[in-house]
Write a structure and sequence with these properties.
single chain, alpha+beta, globular, about 80 residues, five-stranded antiparallel β-sheet
Length: about 80
């Protein structure tokens, strides 16, 4: 699998850039505010979550670089 991969929640409240099997960035949308988090999976449940995202299991859906970047720019202001 080629990285990065992009996913989102089906309700469009979180957007993900998955850099490898253990690292991803998440943009959480809460109302009009967005937060950027970097997650490094070290525990088994976190590793499973990344696998679920990569396999597009419910509630995760495929996304695009453009969809992630448009929200990323709003969070970091660049």
């Amino acid at each position: 699998m080629k990285f990065p991969q992009y996913r989102k929640l089906s309700n469009e409240k979180s957007f993900y850039r998955i850099d490898d099997e253990r690292t991803f960035f998440e943009i959480q949308v809460i109302g009009k505010t967005s937060f950027l988090l970097k997650i490094e999976a070290k525990q088994y449940p976190e590793i499973l979550r990344i696998q679920d995202m990569l396999n597009e299991l419910e509630p995760f859906e495929k996304s695009s670089i453009d969809e992630f970047q448009s929200r990323y720019v709003k969070v970091v202001g660049k």
